[in-house]
Amino acid sequence: MSFKIENGVLVKYTEEPGVTDVVIPDGVTSIGDKAFIYCHSITSINIPDGVTSIGYYAFYGCFSLKSINIPDGVTDIGYNAFERCFSLKSINIPDSVTYIGSRAFYDCNRLTSITIPDGVTSIADKTFYNCKNLTSINIPDSVTKIVFGAFYNCESLTSINIPNGVTSIWNETFYGCKSLTSITIPDGVTSTCN
């Protein structure tokens, strides 16, 4: 059996030869920490309704992953969840998500655009670090803080709108964003952190 499930938590997925498209079974309520770590052959994953959280390192190193369906109802995306998913070009984050952990999309260097849902209050450290093909991002009004290196080395990012609710922007947030030609810092920003 490919799936190890304990009390609704998908604890571990074991790759099967020739299987590239994965459909997580109904009844799963949480994707456990490191559940799909280094599953190199997977190209797509469908997460069923009823799942509310994605654990840390859940899909770390899924190098071939091109698409993933995250259902409405998921509230948490753990740190490093999609780090080093080099083939991931786009991802839909549902409005139900209120927490995105640090380094969640670290090194997703084919990711071109992303919309952060309303309800997220902080863009954690290195969330989009080295997303070299990221050209656009939507930051909602709910965000108040953008932490260290959030968009570090996003070298294709040309412009970004920072909402008025942001009061703190940490250092190296836009380091290496060599294509960035337009940025507006709202009057409400009262501190930058080192």
Q: How much is the radius of gyration in Å?
A: 17 Å
Binned, the helix content reads: under 10%
CATH topology of the largest domain: Leucine-rich repeat, LRR (right-handed beta-alpha superhelix)
Sheet bearing the most strands, described?
6 strands, mixed
Structural class: mainly beta
> CATH first level of the largest domain: which class?
Alpha Beta
Low-confidence stretches: none
Number of helices: 0
CATH superfamily of the largest domain: Ribonuclease Inhibitor
> What characteristic shape results from the CA principal axes?
globular
Give the strand tally: 17
Strand content: 15-25%
The helix-strand sequence is EEEEEEEEEEEEEEEEE
End-to-end distance: 49 Å
Mean pLDDT: 92
Spatially, the strands of the biggest sheet line up as 1-2-4-6-8-9
Looking at the overall shape, the CATH architecture of the largest domain is Alpha-Beta Horseshoe
Task: Summarize the helices and strands and which ones pair or pack.
Elements: E1 3-6, E2 9-13, E3 21-23, E4 30-31, E5 44-46, E6 53-54, E7 67-69, E8 76-77, E9 99-100, E10 113-115, E11 122-123, E12 136-138, E13 145-146, E14 159-161, E15 168-170, E16 182-184, E17 191-193
Parallel strand pairs: 2-4, 3-5, 4-6, 5-7, 6-8, 8-9, 10-12, 11-13, 13-15, 14-16, 15-17
Antiparallel strand pairs: 1-2
